[in-house]
Structures are given as structure tokens and as C-alpha cells.
């Protein structure tokens, strides 16, 4: 049971990490577009 809970926790952490990476990439993409527009 303890091992099963550990597997679920690691899976949740993995999903959270992927969401953070994707969200950060999208935010950085929009920020770069805004920065380019601001520099002009």
C-alpha cells in the first residue's frame, strides 16, 4: 500500500512538473512576443 501511494504521488509530481514546464514555455513565448513589440 505504501509503495502504491508513492507511485501515485510521483505520478502527480510528474504531471505537475509537466504543467509547470508547459506553462512556463507558453508564458515565456508570450513574454518574448511582448518584449519584441515593446522594443520596436
Brief synopsis:
This protein is mostly helical and 40 residues long.
Overview of the molecule:
The chain has 40 residues and is mainly α. It is built from one helix and no strands. It is rod-shaped, with a radius of gyration of 17 Å. The mean pLDDT is 89.
For this entry, give a set of tags.
about 40 residues, mainly alpha, about 95% helix
The total beta strand count reads: 0
Q: Give the oligomeric state.
A: single chain
Task: Choose one word for the global shape.
Answer: rod-shaped
Alpha-beta content class: mainly alpha
Beta-strand portion reads: under 5%
Order of helices and strands: H
Radius of gyration: 17 Å
Topology (elements, then pairings):
Blueprint: H1 2-39
